[in-house]
């Protein structure tokens, strides 16, 4: 029996990936890197910022922190007037009607997560930030911590993700996981372990 629903944030509760793509394009252009949608999917999406800049540019320490801060400030400037993924308000209402627990598990930095949630008018009862956990997706630890905090077993939860990295994290914690087709191919999401894929939450309502 399902007792809890866990959501990723970026690309799941709102289609923020186009904004992240634009922000990364702007900050990486001076380094001679051209970030197109395929590059974004393969090298950036679903990863922690320090890993991204270390992998792409070999940067660590203060220079990496400055670049990340610039990128995230640009993202927040772009992320005005966000709209929830279609069907999300109805899906959350179904969660409330059924008395289910729910929360958000994200690799997003704290300031970004709060900015997006506030823009969407959402106050999740549980928010797990990878940067506070110490390990980010695809490591299962963020989802394992969410389960512990909610007091539910993996098989009593459902997770919703949008990236192969996120799917691997939730599946690694033993949670049945579904994926949204906001940025990645169905094939890649299913290969990562998703039980199924949806265009948006309108197609997922029958799960509850």
Automatic annotation (TrEMBL):
SUPFAM superfamilies: HAD-like. InterPro entries: Beta-PGM-like, HAD-like_sf, HAD-SF_hydro_IA, HAD_sf, PGP-like_dom2. Keywords: Carbohydrate metabolism, Hydrolase, Magnesium, Metal-binding. GO terms for molecular function: hydrolase activity; metal ion binding. The keyword Coiled coil does not apply. Its cofactor is Mg(2+). Gene3D superfamilies: HAD superfamily/HAD-like, Putative phosphatase, domain 2. PANTHER family: 6-PHOSPHOGLUCONATE PHOSPHATASE, HEXITOL PHOSPHATASE B. Belongs to the HAD-like hydrolase superfamily. CbbY/CbbZ/Gph/YieH family. This is HAD-superfamily hydrolase, subfamily IA, variant 3. It comes from Thermus thermophilus (strain SG0.5JP17-16).
């Amino acid at each position: 029996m399902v007792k809890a629903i866990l959501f990723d944030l970026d690309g799941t509760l709102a289609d923020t990936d186009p904004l992240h793509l634009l922000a990364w394009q702007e900050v990486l252009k001076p380094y001679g890197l051209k970030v197109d949608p395929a590059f974004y999917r393969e090298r950036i999406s679903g990863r922690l910022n320090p890993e991204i800049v270390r992998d792409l540019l070999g940067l660590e320490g203060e220079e990496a922190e400055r670049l990340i801060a610039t990128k995230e400030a640009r993202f927040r400037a772009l992320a005005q007037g966000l709209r929830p993924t279609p069907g999300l308000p109805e899906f959350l209402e179904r969660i409330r009607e059924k008395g289910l627990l729910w929360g958000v598990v994200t690799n997003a930095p704290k300031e970004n997560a709060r900015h997006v949630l506030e823009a969407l008018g959402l106050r999740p009862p549980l928010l797990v930030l990878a940067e506070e956990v110490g390990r980010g997706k695809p490591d299962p630890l963020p989802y394992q911590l969410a389960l512990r905090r909610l007091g539910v077993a993996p098989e009593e939860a459902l997770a919703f993700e949008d990236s192969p990295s996120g799917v691997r994290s939730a599946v690694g914690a033993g949670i049945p996981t579904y994926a949204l087709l906001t940025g990645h191919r169905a094939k890649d999401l299913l290969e990562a372990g998703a039980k199924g894929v949806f265009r948006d939450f309108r197609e997922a309502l029958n799960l509850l």
